[in-house]
Structure formats: structure tokens, C-alpha cells
Specification:
Strand content of chain A: 15-25%
CATH superfamily of the largest domain in chain A: FAD-linked oxidase, cap domain/gating helix
Largest interface: A-B, 97 and 99 residues
CATH architecture of the largest domain in chain A: 3-Layer(aba) Sandwich
CATH class of the largest domain in chain A: Alpha Beta
Structural class of chain A: alpha+beta
Number of strands of chain A: 19
Radius of gyration of chain A: 23 Å
Oligomer: homodimer
Distance between the termini of chain A: 51 Å
Chain lengths: ~550, ~550
């Protein structure tokens, strides 16, 4: 499915604010009166410099992939030159595409991918692999002065083989989430990978960015589900062995997973599947405060429970959730029913509560056993059950939040997210530090909230959402202030520069500090080995300072 | 603990053959009459060429680590120049140390490790990191014409920090299994890593070789338990971030795990811990044949059961087990009690049965729930419970098997093991192919048996044991025939060249085929980045053919 050119998601679809008066009232009181932020009416309003590809190069590309599979028109070039981050949205709404790609090509096969890379290498043309284009970290925007082609993998989208004995499937990289899950489900399997971008993002993109999904606490991030893969790089290819585990040197899969297109193009992968769960059961719990919920999460994970969903909102996010949800389906209704007086008696105030959506899935007996073991832990940390509605509400709307970003933008409101992960001992301190850093960067009239969405026995992720009235004429600088403050705090805290969004160009300035000189040297060596001409997605992922020269 | 110089394990300890007459009778009938294979009486019988290190180099090393921490005497050089594989045993018993190291050094700190590497780099001296020295694949034997030092990490053996909140511990690489577990257990934690070499092997060695343990089906191989690590390489160091997961490029931990000393020296790691299990429960089951047991294992793993021990012997190994075990503690007694007639009625013949040792561990409730779910699966595939004794017998003797190798050697019997892993769809075919290849290489009077010891939802390991009467004067060539046949079969089948022993020098001839040119290029790039002079454990792990030159 192709997304609307000017924002997130399906054309004609928007975020239905469930309780508009209350919602916009809250926005006004917290962030200031919303405004109006116009956008250009169509792609025709965008002017681009002409494609820098020489006629000979274009002819060679057309020979490689076919006449119809190369586009150089402005509309296509504009759409494929930006991702779906906040900065991308601001710019496309203004009609600004400052770094346009010079052509979009659609190879049909792995051989055609190799042919395109060979032409690009021969002619020194940069190549940006493009799956669903949902990067929120500048992963698909050209970042080089060289002529650039965007290699769209849309046509490599087949499930090549499902092996029901080994519970694996070999799948082409360009397939999007829904097509993939539908085909696997038909054979009784799931990949269990549901990032918020699920409907529009591709398997290859997930692998290239070390994606995480909403059920990764059970199924593992994408790096745990790759059994083997194939990477085409300029001048060669690599195919890793299809084995469940090995002791035969460094794990080459883990070199390529997360490489964000800088080494080559992931063309297919054999993925580890799980059975479609017999039963999925989500329940909501309210904790007296975020730290109590974090302790409950930690204890569940360390006592080896395996929830599929463990999503704990901090107090501000919980409060916003209560405003968002409309009666009679939403959390507000549930709370109404539960009775504020009851919660108060149990030490939970709705102004400072922390909402947990907890889910287990799998075979009936396993799910039952997990709930039996989880409940005493939840109780011990003060968790109060608020029934199944919050889980249902979350499930219904779990792919919807990005649409809201565009609604807010229409009203002159900055809204974006960022995420990290750290060990449990540093968790609450990092949560507070990033929240405070972003709030300071955005000023008093801002809102910063967060949730824990991916838990491990040894730590967890933190996913921040931040909102502020846009500073007119300074929209991007304002956003950069918040991002910079967050990234610097994350680096200073020793946390993950990203847990599942990736690095792209947005987080690149911190990569040298994140990796250190030794890590930078490893990354430079890989880049040099696979792409010595630096034609593969240049300007992304790699540290910006040169690694320390050899002693 | 230091091992005996001429074989496996503690000085003065041997394998008490429980049923000697029956056992040696079987050996004679299957392999031919045992002989006598003498060994030299002491290390004094070994003559080595003088150390090739120049006086200046030795002086520099002594300045770096202290006068007493550098040894160049023949006895030390001999002991530290071989691992514990079959070929090593044959040679040390003859007094043959064809490739002696030139000095053994014992740094006390990470800084001293760096100082030794700096001296080595300056002088072009090769360095072999040495943990417990239990490599069975030639991992610690010098394999270069250059002067070589063996860097013994014995003195870097502290648990630096246990973080009870994050359930992690930061530990120096030279610590051996028992010291590590004792210290973690005291704080309520376990690393859950119990390779057969547990008593004598080191954390750093486990990480460097991608080790697997007897409970890795639950706890994961060592690569799953490393949160972060530190590697000293010539001219620098790398310290990975202590995060539970990240999306910030290739996983640098997974570059270093399995690097077998060719990139640098792993000096410490922060490891992911688990709680000491409340309950551990092992039971034995007999299946009518190996394939039925494999199906039961596959179904349990794919239905997301999490056994800690799942050890399934094929028919020949089961038969040998029955001979080994002495009444009244062993399996034989159990079977006696169960009554052959009962088994026969249920379709199990003792001549062709397959024994499963299955264990679950963790919290009481979780263990109970797992057994409840496992039992119908075991029944469906024809598994018959033979109670708890087989599990107890296995637990008691689980570190003993390597002692038997030496007993057999004393009697002129070749005994060795090798292992691999593959996906479930290829499992039985690979089992048969390797078994047949090794049996053909060794001739009629040989015994090849195997077990499944590490299971995953998507495949499993196969661990082969092979025995034959030694061919006098051709002991090593005979062994090489068997190894070559097995390795070639494994490569041809697309299976793991090793699942947990590693590559060392023994498996190196197959690495080019295993990795393919793209993989070889990645490995060469890493080597070049960290160790351009090739002083780190030269002659190990890396493919022997040069990778294809760049197009």
C-alpha cells in the first residue's frame, strides 16, 4: 500500500480524535492555542532541479531493470526522497525537497538488484535501498552530492518458501507487513513482528534497521528472528548459512542486521516463525505511579514470564490516554465504572497513575499458567486490574498514533517520538533525565510523556512522545533542539542511541561517541570491505568523525 | 584448577568404568581386542627447541607484567602449546610438541594485557590468548613460524560487580566455571552455562568460541548471555555498550563473540544472569527409535516449551549407555525394574530404543506447568517414562566423559567427538550422513553414535562420538580421515561447521566453503581492522583461501 505523499498512512484516512472538545481544550491549556499550519495542495507545487543522472547512466539502468522500472519525474523523485519523520513532514508540507534523489528504480529480481549495483559502482552513483520508506530517522533521504538512485524493493515481495518442519520461511525483502502475515497465517504461522509502521514497512527495512515490534517482548526484535539472509553488495553477494546456531566465527547475520543500507541491499531472508497463538489475552492494570509499574515489569521479566505485550505508560501518558479515550469503549469508561473512589482507596490517584497493558499469548494452558504467576507480582507492586477494555482499546488503535501527528501538525503542533533502552538499574534515572532535557529544550508549554514497551530480564526500552506549539519559522530548529538534548542525554547515560528506530542521518552525529574509536574502526572496516566507493546509502549510520588512525 | 599435563582433568582422577567386564567385552567385540598405548612418564621427557624470543623482547615482556609472570622453561612451554583434543592427547602422550610457544605470560590487569599486545605488535611477535586451554579444535596451539607468546588470563579472574537490579555481572575473562558459578550463586544468580569443560574452561574462552552448555536449550548459548564486553587489540580497545538491545548498526558484541583470539583479547564482559532455579526436575524417557524422539523434541520446542536439558541419544548411544551404567544406580537397573516385557509391549526394544533425558527448571509453578504440557507430547511420540534415575545418573557423570577418552587411549582405542547443528527438516538426513561418513572412514570395526543436546524451535545440534581401534603408527591420520569425512559431509549439507566447539585450526580448511566469498571478505576486513600485522592467534578461524579479490 502506498502512503499519502504529505504525511502518514492511507490516503483519505485520518485520526478520529475521540473526544475533540476535551482534547483540544487540553492542548490549548498545556501548549497554547492551536493554530493552522497549511500544506501545499499537490506534488505539482514542488519544483526540483533536473535529475543529475547522465543519459548513458539512465539508459544502462533501463537496460538493467526495464524501461518502465525507472522513474525520473518530479512527483516520484519528491515522494521517495523523504521518510516519515517530523522533519520530513514539515518539509513535504511546505513543498521543500532539498536533497532529491535523481531516479527511482524498481528491480524485479535479485539479479536485477545486482545489475543496478554494478552499474552504480561503475558510474560512481549512490544507491539508497528503499523498502516501505517509513524511516523516522532520515534513513532514505539522499545525503551526498553525488547523483543518487533510490532502489525500491517493492517488486521483490514474494514468500518463496514456508518450511513447516523447521518453522521457517524464506521471504523476499520488499514484502510489507500485512502481505507477509497473511501468507504466514494461512499456514498456521506468524513472524510476530508488529512495528507501529507494520502496514507500510517492509521485511528488508525491518532487518536493515534492527526493528522492534509491539510484541517483541515475546517474539524478540527482528535480529532474533533472522535465521539467514542474502545481501547484494557492489561487486558481490553474501548468503549466510541457514542454521539455528553456530560456533564458526563472528555472526555474519548480526553484521548485516542493522546495516541500514550502507553495506548493500538485503534481498531476502529466512525467518524464524512461531505458531499463530491459540489465545491472546490483554488486561489493563493501574499502578499508583510509574516506578511501581517498572518494578512489576522487571520482576515479571526476571522471573522468566514471557508477556507478548508489556506496555507501561508513565503518569503524563496515562493522563493523556484518559483524555483520548471516548466513552463507552475506552479507558475513561472503564475507570468511570471502576469508580474513582475505589482507586483512591487503593492508593491510586488518576492524576498520577501509571497504566499497564499486559498481554500473554500462546497455548491456552501456557497463557493460564503465566497469568497465575503474574497476578501476585502485579498485586505486590500495587497494580489494580481495570479489566480487558484498555487492552482492546490499545489493540484497535495500535497503528493509529502516527495519523495523529499529522492532525496536530495541521494545527501547528509539533509532535514526535524518540526512544532508547537501558539496564534496569539506570531505567528511572534515564527516564527522568531525557524527559527533563526535552522539556527544557521545548520550554514550559510542552508535554513530554513516555512508556516502557520492550522489556528484557536485564533492562527495557523507553519510548518518549513530545509535543509543543510550533515556533513559526523555526519549526525544524525547535525540533532539533529537543532531539539534540535527548540524544546527548542518552549518550551521556550510556544508554542505547536507539532501541528500534535506527540511526539514519538524524542520530549520526552521536555515533562516534556511541561506538567509541574501536567500534568505529570495526564499522569502517566493514564499510570498506563491502563498499569501498561509498556508494551505498552514503551519509547514514557511520560515525561522522573519522576513526582514530591506526597506531 | 590446573589439568593433568597428559590428558583431561584433575591429576589423579580417572573414569571409573562401572561395569568393566561387560564394557571391555563390548569394546573387544565391536572394535577388536584392546591394546596398550604407553605414554611418556613426565614432562622431562619432552625436548623443545630453545625459545625464539630475543633477550630484548623477553626483557620488555618482564617489564610489562613482572619478572615472575613470564615463563620460558620447557615444561610450561610444552603444556601451554597444546589443547585437549584427540590429536593433542596422542601427541603429548608421545612427548611430541611440534609447535611450541616461546613464552607464557600472565598479565594481572587489562593494562598489562594492553602492554603485552603493544610489545608484541612492536616486535612482530604472535600472541595466543589462553583461558582454560580446553580447546578440542586446535585453538591454542601455535600455528605460525613467528616467535609466539601464550597470554594466560588466569590472573584476570575477578567478579568485578554483580548488579542485582539489572541481573547482570561484570566479570574478568580468565575466571573458570566453578569460581564464577559459586560467586554468582551466593547472590542468588546463575549464568546457566555448563559446557562439559565447565570445571576447567574460562568465561573468556566461552565467549571467544561461542560456547554452548548442557543447559543452553534454556539459558541460550554464551552469545545470548553477553550484555557487553571489552576487547583489547593491538593498538586499541573496544568496549561495547551495556544495553539490553539496540538499533544502532551491526551488533559489535556478535563480531567479537566467536572471534577465537584472532582480533584481540577479551578481557572482561558483563553477563546476563538468571535466578538460581527453585526447582530442577529431570526425567528419562525411552522412545521406540531416534526419529520419534526427534519429533517429540521438535514439537516441544515449537510449542514454546523451554526445557533446560533435552538430551536425546540415538539407538547406538542408548545401547552403550545401558552397558555403561552399573546396577543399582544406573539406567540398566531402571530398565530391569521397568521390565523388558513392558517396554516390548509398548513397542520399545532395548536394541533400538532412544533415551531422552528431559529437564525443566525454574519456579515450582512454571516447572509444573511445563511438565503438564510436555507429557502428552512425549506420549504421542511413543515416549515411555523410565523415571528419575537416568537423569540423576546423567547429572552425576556429566563432566566425566572426557576422562574416559584417556582410559580408552591407554588401551589403544581412538575416541573423539564432533558436533554440528541444522534445521529440523534436514536433521535426520544429516545425522545419517555424518554417521555413515565417519563409519566408512573408520571401517567396520568402529562405533559411531550421537545425541541431540541443544534444541531450538527451528533446529537442533547433533553431537557425535566415534570409537575405533587405533591404527598403530597412523593414529593421527586415522583420526583425520574421520574428521575430514565428517566436515565435508557437514559442509555439503549446509549445516553448521561447528555448533559449540569452534573452528580453531582443525576446522579451518572448511571455512572458505562455509562462509563463501562474501563472508570471507567480512572476516578479512575485521582482521585487517583490528590486527593488520596478523599477530593475534595467527593460523586460526580465518578461511585459508584468500577471499576473492574485489571486482
Amino acid at each position: 500500500m502506498t502512503m499519502k505523499w504529505w504525511g502518514w498512512g492511507e490516503e483519505g484516512r485520518t485520526f478520529p480524535v475521540p473526544n475533540p472538545e476535551r482534547f483540544w481544550g487540553l492542548v490549548a491549556s498545556r501548549l497554547g492555542e492551536p493554530g493552522v499550519s497549511p500544506r501545499i495542495e499537490s506534488l505539482d507545487a514542488i519544483a526540483l532541479p533536473p535529475s543529475r543522472l547522465e543519459g548513458e547512466t539512465l539508459a544502462a539502468l533501463r537496460r538493467a531493470v526495464g524501461e518502465d522500472a525507472v522513474a525520473t519525474d518530479t512527483a516520484q523523485r519528491a515522494v521517495y526522497s523523504l521518510g516519515k519523520g517530523y522533519r520530513d513532514a514539515v518539509r513535504i508540507r511546505r513543498g521543500e525537497v532539498p536533497h532529491p534523489t535523481d531516479a527511482v528504480v524498481w528491480p524485479q529480481t535479485e539479479e536485477e538488484v545486482a545489475a543496478v549495483l554494478a552499474e552504480a559502482a561503475r558510474r560512481g552513483v549512490a544507491v539508497i535501498p528503499f523498502g516501505g520508506g517509513t524511516s523516522v530517522v532520515g534513513g532514505v533521504e539522499p545525503a551526498t552530492d553525488r547523483p543518487t538512485i533510490t532502489l525500491h524493493l517493492q517488486q521483490l515481495a514474494r514468500v518463496l518458501n514456508v518450511d513447516p518442519i523447521s518453522a521457517t520461511a524464506t521471504i523476499e525483502a520488499g514484502i510489507l507487513g500485512p502481505a507477509l502475515e497473511t501468507q504466514l497465517n494461512a499456514q498456521g504461522f506468524t513472524l510476530g513482528h508488529f512495528p507501529q509502521s507494520f502496514q507500510f514497512s517492509s521485511l528488508g527495512g525491518w532487518i536493515a534497521t534492527r526493528s522492534g515490534g509491539q510484541k517483541s517482548t515475546l517474539y524478540g526484535k527482528i535480529e532474533e528472528r533472522v535465521q539467514s539472509l542474502r545481501l547484494a553488495f557492489p561487486g558481490g553477494a553474501i548468503a549466510t548459512r541457514e542454521v539455528p546456531a553456530a560456533a564458526a566465527g563472528p555472526d555474519l547475520n548480526q553484521l548485516i542486521i542493522g546495516s541500514e543500507g550502507i553495506l548493500g541491499v538485503i534481498t531476502q531472508a529466512t525467518m524464524r516463525l512461531a505458531p499463530v497463538p491459540q489465545r491472546t489475552e490483554l488486561r489493563g492494570y493501574l499502578f499508583p505511579a510509574f516506578p511501581a509499574g517498572v518494578e512489576a515489569a522487571r520482576e515479571m521479566m526476571q522471573r522468566e514470564l514471557t508477556p507478548s505485550v508489556l506496555r507501561l505508560s508513565d503518569e503524563p501518558e496515562t493522563a493523556i490516554n484518559l483524555v483520548f479515550r471516548s466513552a463507552p469503549h475506552g479507558l475513561a469508561a472503564v475507570i468511570e465504572k471502576a469508580g474513582g473512589w475505589y482507586l483512591t482507596r487503593r492508593g491510586v490517584s488518576l492524576d498520577s497513575a501509571s497504566l499497564l497493558i499486559l498481554g500473554f499469548e500462546g497455548e491456552e494452558a501456557a497463557v493460564r499458567s503465566q497469568w497465575q504467576r503474574a497476578k501476585p507480582i502485579l498485586r505486590r507492586w500495587g497494580g489494580i486490574s481495570v479489566g480487558k477494555s484498555p487492552g482492546r482499546a490499545w489493540e484497535r488503535s495500535r497503528y493509529e498514533a502516527p495519523y495523529l501527528r499529522d492532525v496536530l501538525l495541521d494545527h501547528g503542533i509539533l509532535a514526535d517520538t524518540l526512544e532508547t533502552a537501558t539496564t534496569w538499574d539506570r531505567y528511572l534515572a534515564l527516564h527522568a533525565a531525557v524527559r527533563d532535557a526535552v522539556a527544557t529544550a521545548l520550554g514550559d508549554r510542552s508535554l513530554v510523556m513516555a512508556h516502557l514497551s520492550h522489556s528484557y530480564p536485564h533492562g527495557g526500552s523507553i519510548y518518549f512522545t513530545f509535543l509543543a506549539r510550533q515556533e513559526e519559522g523555526q519549526e525544524i530548529q525547535q525540533w532539533e533542539r529537543a532531539k539534540n538534548a535527548a540524544c546527548q542525554t542518552i549518550i551521556d547515560s550510556g544508554a542505547a542511541l536507539s532501541h528500534h528506530h535506527g540511526i539514519g542521518s538524524d542520530h549520526r552525529p552521536w555515533m562516534a561517541a556511541y561506538l567509541g574509536p574501536g567500534g568505529a574502526r570495526a564499522m569502517a572496516a566493514l564499510k570498506q570491505a563491502f563498499d569501498p566507493q561509498d556508494i551505498m546509502n552514503p551519509g547514514k549510520l557511520t560515525p561522522m568523525e573519522e576513526p582514530t588512525p591506526r597506531a
